[in-house]
Amino acid sequence: MDEQQKTTEVRETNVQEGATNVQRQTVRTVEAADSRVVAQRVVWYIAGFILVLLALRIVLFMLGANQGSGFVDFIYAVSGVFAAPFAGIFPAPTYGQFFFDTASLVAMVVYALVAWGIAKLFTLNSARDV
């Protein structure tokens, strides 16, 4: 939910006593986010997670990271699931040597386009652009 808070200040002057009384009122407005916006945010969050994993995979391949390392092996295993459909497009990577993983790059582009298309589906019937 998006929450907006506004503060209104009202001043009253007592002419007989010459004192000034200050009275503050807080107005709070709570608006529920549109379900289409929430759905778009979920799609982009999931796509962002996948894209970050694939970007880490590319960087680790480019630096020739050692697969024997626990972190590197974890990143290769998890991101390999998302890069697998694109593995045959270009030559296979060699672990432990410098390599630019073009299959992961293609996967990033495809997943970003798919996420954009799915997120856009939620706003097809809307009168305004969300």
Number of strands: 2
Overall pLDDT metric: 79
The largest sheet has its strands arranged as 1-2
User: In whole angstroms, how far apart are the ends?
Assistant: 15 Å
List the uncertain runs: none
Query: What does the main sheet amount to?
Result: 2 strands, antiparallel
What coarse outline follows from CA principal-axis ratios?
A: elongated
Strand content: 15-25%
The arrangement of helices and strands along the chain is: EEHHH
- Rg for CA atoms: 27 Å
Number of helices: 3
Helix content: 40-55%
Q: Report the structural category.
A: alpha+beta
Number of domains: 2
What's the layout of helices and strands?
Blueprint: E1 2-13, E2 20-31, H1 35-62, H2 70-83, H3 102-121
Antiparallel strand pairs: 1-2
Structure explained in plain terms:
It is a single chain. With 130 residues, this protein is of the alpha+beta class. The protein folds into 2 domains: 2-31, no CATH class; 35-121, no CATH class. 48% of the residues lie in helices and 18% in strands. The protein contains 3 helices and 2 strands, in the order ββααα. It has a two-stranded antiparallel sheet with strand order 1-2. A hairpin with a 6-residue loop joins strand 1 and strand 2. Helix 1 crosses helix 2 (70-83) and helix 1 (35-62) runs antiparallel to helix 3 (102-121). The longest helix has 28 residues, at 35-62. The protein is elongated. The mean pLDDT is 79.
